[in-house]
Design goal:
The protein is of the alpha+beta class. The protein contains 5 helices and 11 strands. Bound molecules: ligand MTE and molybdenum atom.
Amino acid sequence: MNLKRLSLGLLAAIAFACPSLAGELAAPEDRVVLTVSGAIDNTNAPDGAEFDLAMLDALPQDSVTGRTPWYDDSRTFSGPLISAILEAVGAHGKALRVTAVNDYSAEIPVSDIEDYPVILATRIDGATLSVREKGPGFVIYPFDKAPELYNEKYFGRSVWQVTSIEIF
Ligand SMILES: Nc1nc2c(c(=O)[nH]1)N[C@H]1C(S)=C(S)[C@@H](COP(=O)(O)O)O[C@H]1N2
Ligand SMILES: [Mo]
């Protein structure tokens, strides 16, 4: 077997085994609800990686149910795991700067995402989160599974009306 062929075959096998290294990220077909920029390998736009709602829905999802400081009663939030978003864009940084439409922003260490199933909620009680209802994205920590997170430190990282995330 010739060496060039062998190395090409190896490269193809590696690209196949590691889709995040292959840089595959389809372009959004609908309104962009999230743009991820910064230290990422996979982009689909000059600004970085753009997602429409269907693209976020296609990622692994989780949900969080219970009382939060933002609502009077128990609610169920659901949406993609932020870890899945980071994987989709091939992120390699230590932190996320999460920015909302009102220019509020918070820094989230990547360790939070590794330690807990934090989601970017796109739904509340199954209904799409409109901008009026703190959408299109709302960072929700798993307060139901990890009650130790129910404090100001993590409330401050619970950014609503999220439209962009920068990895650094
Ligand atoms: N978009 C957006 N998200 C935000 C904020 C904000 O001003 N804008 N405030 C943060 C802070 S500092 C806290 S403590 C919690 C709770 O804010 P609240 O007390 O105004 O409801 O939401 C967080 N998420
Ligand atoms: Mo806060």
